[in-house]
Amino acid sequence: DAGVTQSPTHLIKTRGQQVTLRCSPISGHKSVSWYQQVLGQGPQFIFQYYEKEERGRGNFPDRFSARQFPNYSSELNVNALLLGDSALYLCASSYLAGGQGTQYFGPGTRLTVL
Amino acid sequence: AQKITQTQPGMFVQEKEAVTLDCTYDTSDPSYGLFWYKQPSSGEMIFLIYQGSYDQQNATEGRYSLNFQKARKSANLVISASQLGDSAMYFCAMRDDQTGANNLFFGTGTRLTVIP
């Protein structure tokens, strides 16, 4: 079975632009979470979606938004990009919304903001 | 608030030897989960092992075992018989099982280098 897939792999944007990152979960997984990993740090939680509804939100500004589609894939949108948004964006899927649902990560999208 | 601490920025181990990566956590919730992930230079986070706060026995997955000491709030990862392919960043993470959300709190990671 295919793992979590993310697109694009790499992205270069300039300050003020908008970006959309995409994620497809493992088949059968209904929960998708997004994380931001700045160089030299551990990932930080941005959003969790389960059955198309937001189940959790981390400490990120309103410039960050996300949604989940009926096929459980998800998009992360970031508006008005700042230099500090340069990071590896990781998507993870899990079968359960919480409880014992282990999260499995995709390869990430590396965003560079110039 | 949940907090994960990994105090070893880098570790070296000889091939075929065992190594312990340290992780301490802080939470006031009685129900939580602890995870270890491996991140090679490619960037993907690979799930290694899970320990629930109510689990009586330490978790094991092949060459990986988790030394869970609840009273000390520590969840150290032990890798036995190290291989060159084990060289990577290792992250400890915690999930609060009471909120219903599935968000993980990560430590800053430990870079493991296996020496031939």
Low-confidence runs of at least 5 consecutive residues of chain A? none
From the spread of the alpha carbons, the general shape of chain A counts as globular
Q: How many β-strand stretches of chain B?
A: 12
Hey, roughly how much beta strand do the residues of chain A contain? Answer: over 45%
Q: What can you see in these coordinates?
A:
The complex is a heterodimer of chains A (114) and B (116). Chain A contains no helices and 11 strands. With 114 residues, chain A is mostly beta strands. In chain A, strands 2, 4, 5, 6, 9, 10 and 11 form a 7-stranded mixed beta sheet that branches. Chain A is globular, with a radius of gyration of 13 Å. The model of chain B has no long low-confidence stretch (mean pLDDT 94). Chain B has 116 residues and is mostly beta strands. In chain B, a hairpin with a 4-residue loop joins strand 8 and strand 9 (74-79). Chain B contains no helices and 12 strands. Chain B is globular and about 45 Å long. Chain A binds chain B through residues 31, 33, 35, 40-45, 48, 50, 55-56, 58, 88, 90, 92, 94, 96-108, 110, and chain B through 4, 33, 35, 37, 42-47, 50, 52, 91, 93, 95, 97, 99-109.
Key traits:
heterodimer; A: 114 residues; mainly beta; seven-stranded mixed beta sheet; four-stranded antiparallel beta sheet; 11 strands; globular; B: 116 residues; six-stranded mixed beta sheet; 0% helix
SSE inventory with pairings:
The complex is a heterodimer of chains A (114) and B (116).
Chain A (H helix, E strand, L loop, with lengths): L4 E3 L2 E4 L5 E6 L6 E7 L6 E7 L2 E5 L6 E5 L5 E5 L8 E8 L9 E2 L3 E5 L1
Parallel strand pairs in A: 2-11
Antiparallel strand pairs in A: 1-3, 3-8, 4-5, 4-9, 5-6, 7-8, 9-10, 9-11
Chain B lengths: L2 E3 L4 E5 L4 E3 L2 E3 L5 E8 L6 E7 L7 E2 L2 E6 L4 E6 L8 E9 L7 E3 L3 E6 L1
What is the structure about, briefly put?
The complex is a heterodimer of chains A (114) and B (116). With 114 residues, chain A is mainly β.
